[in-house]
Structures are given as C-alpha cells and as structure tokens.
Design a protein that fits this description.
271 residues, alpha+beta, 2 domains, 7 strands, binds zinc ion
Length: 271
C-alpha cells in the first residue's frame, strides 16, 4: 500500500483511487457538486479527472456545440488530494514547478479548464461563459463565470475528513472543512489507491448474465419516480431497464449509454 506522501510519480493518476472515494463522499455531502464531462466531445489529456460543476459542464457543452469539433482538455477538476500529492513532492524537492498550498487552487473549485487548443477557441469560450483569466501567463486556463458556481473547496476538504474518520476510527479528526496541518498530514498518510475498507456502489448495466440485486431495484424505482415508464421493478437489470435508463439519460442531456455510473446515480438522486 503506497501512501500519498511516498509517491514519486508526478501524474495525478497515481491518486485516482483515493480521488474517486473523495468524489463519492463529496457528492453525498453536496449532491450534484461535481458531474462528469467524459461523455462530451472532448479528448482527454493524460491525467485528466473529467469532472466539473454542472454550470461549467453546461457552458463547456455550449462552447463545444458552437465550435463543432472536439477540444483537448488537459485539466478540469483537481482534488485537494491531487494538489496535496504535488505539494508533498514539491516539499521533498522532486519537482520544480510552483505548487500552491492544497485547498486554494482554481482547479479545486471544479469550474476551471486547461484547453490545449486555447488559441483557436479563446474568443468562442469568452462568448460562452468563460473567462481567459490569466491571459498569456497561463494561456490554457479558463474559468467559468456562471454565478451558479459555488466554492466547493471547503466541502471537499470536509468530504476528505469524513472519509478519513470513516476509515480511521482510532484517529478521528475535526470535520471542519479547513485544511490545517493535521488534515494535510492525514491526506499524506492515506493510501493512494484508496482505503481498502470503503465500498461504493457498483456500476450497473446490461450484462450476460443479468446483474441482480437491491441496488438494481433502487435504480428501477428511481427511474419511475423520475417519470420514466418501467413496467417491472424486479431488481433485474434487463433490456427494459436499459431502455428506461437511456430514456432517462436523454431527458437529462446525458449521452444515453444505458450505464448507471456515478453521474446517472446523482441525477437519479441515489448518491
Ligand atoms: Zn489551469
């Protein structure tokens, strides 16, 4: 088990397992705080954690539609854990770049994007709810200007504190949303691939043999509640369930892939 403080790889992919656990905690704390952008017409830069706040997702979607081709996104949401990982490496002299204290950077709000083709889309982005915040100093960087963006940075720190307390009963910390020395130390001492004793919902989809269980039943009932017709709520993820999921996804503006992952669960109010 490699701890965050022991990592020597610069790519934030190294903490993806822990990031995903934090993602679930955060969405339980603040529903819909982060949504996926993986289904949009984007190319994913190496290390991209493809999430941002819903107003930012909508603004990106509108810009992509206007642009008519895909864009390469190098960075979107960056968690406090990813930032702490970089900060620790900076402290150990492993990297030269300027690394801000975790908890403060723009990308931790989930409303910033780094876009490879920035020069081609600068004007287009600024007319679709994005600010070219730092000009040529950080040319790839855009911030969403929607007034519906909330500062989720304290929430995500609180989500980490909850995750830590859930998995470390003998070493409880304050759930105050503040990244003090103690919380930073706990991040450093967390396993990069995630805590082994935490379980999150499985991905539900049409498989052979069918997936079966209470969790499927919950999805079926949630689909009905959302107004999607579904004859049987039989706890079996069958063809009819897949069709209903697709109809639901379409009604929410998602790509209808019939797979109930985190995004669909959030919109079905199951997370
Ligand atoms: Zn940036």
């Amino acid at each position: 088990m490699i701890l965050v403080k022991e990592l020597t790889a610069v790519s934030t992919i190294a903490v993806r397992g822990l990031d995903l656990q934090l993602f679930w905690e955060l969405n339980q704390l603040v529903p819909n705080s982060l949504v996926s952008i993986a289904d949009l017409n984007i190319k994913k830069g190496e290390g991209l954690f493809p999430y941002c706040q819903l107003p930012a997702r909508n603004a990106l979607k509108a810009a992509l539609t206007a642009y008519g081709q895909s864009l390469t996104i190098n960075s979107a949401y960056r968690s406090v854990i990813a930032q702490a990982m970089l900060y620790s490496q900076k402290q150990r002299g492993l990297i030269d770049n300027l690394v801000g204290y975790p908890g403060k950077s723009d990308h931790q709000k989930g409303a910033s994007l780094d876009i490879e083709e920035w020069a081609d889309v600068k004007t287009l982005m600024t007319s679709h709810g994005w600010k070219w915040t730092y000009g040529n100093k950080d040319a790839m960087h855009f911030d969403c200007t929607s007034n519906q963006i909330r500062d989720i940075r304290p929430d995500s720190i609180k989500a980490f504190q909850k995750l830590w307390n859930k998995t470390n009963p003998d070493n409880q910390i304050a759930e105050d949303g503040d990244l003090g020395e103690q919380t930073l130390k706990c991040i450093y001492n967390s396993p990069a691939e995630g805590f082994p004793n935490v379980q999150y919902p499985r991905i539900l989809k049409l498989t052979t043999p069918y997936q079966f269980g209470k969790d499927v039943g919950q999805v079926q009932l949630a689909l009905r509640k959302a107004g999607i017709p579904l004859e049987q709520a039989n706890q079996i993820f069958d063809n009819a369930t897949e069709q209903a999921v697709k109809a639901f996804q379409q009604s929410k503006g998602l790509s209808p892939d019939g797979v109930v992952g985190e995004q669909s669960r959030i919109l079905l109010q199951l997370s």
